[in-house]
Task: inverse folding
């Protein structure tokens, strides 16, 4: 059962849509997409079972990927964490912790060129101590973060032309 979310949602905010503007109203014509995108966001950032990837870590990873968009509205969705190791990760710097460094390297590669991922890329995560279920959860998170960048960018271009 889909939960109907309050508007504006994360994509509205990241796209810079004016409340009740033309593009904002057009998005409302696709409630299944609005709800699906927000449900997906919640599922990857704050799942019921975080599988050992805390919501704070997940948000730091999403922020790291969002840095590649060079978009302040998108970054505002992911504040820098208070934990210094996670803050380092979220600022695009390389963490000292081997596990976080492996996650950072993988996130950077996926954000820049997802087609460059190989079996060896995934093995590096497993060797750094992530479980198979954590690698899958990380992949889902990275996919959503990249999706959010692209949709927010498209919405912002439409908003500029509206």
Result:
């Amino acid at each position: 059962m889909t939960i109907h979310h309050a508007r504006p949602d994360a994509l509205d905010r990241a796209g810079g849509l004016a409340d009740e503007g033309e593009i904002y109203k057009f998005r409302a014509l696709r409630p299944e997409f609005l709800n699906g995108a927000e449900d997906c966001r919640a599922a990857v950032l704050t799942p019921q079972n975080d599988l050992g990837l805390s919501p704070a870590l997940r948000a730091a990873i999403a922020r790291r990927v969002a840095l590649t968009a060079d978009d302040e509205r998108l970054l505002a969705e992911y504040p820098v964490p208070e934990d210094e190791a996670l803050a380092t990760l979220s600022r695009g710097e390389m963490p000292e912790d081997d596990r976080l460094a492996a996650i950072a390297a993988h996130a950077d590669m996926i954000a820049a060129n997802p087609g460059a991922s190989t079996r060896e890329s995934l093995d590096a995560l497993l060797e750094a101590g992530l479980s198979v279920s954590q690698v899958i959860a990380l992949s889902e998170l990275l996919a959503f973060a990249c999706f959010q960048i692209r949709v927010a960018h498209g919405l912002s271009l439409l908003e500029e032309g509206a």
In short: The radius of gyration is 16 Å. The longest helix spans residues 132-161. The chain is about 65% helix and 0% strand.
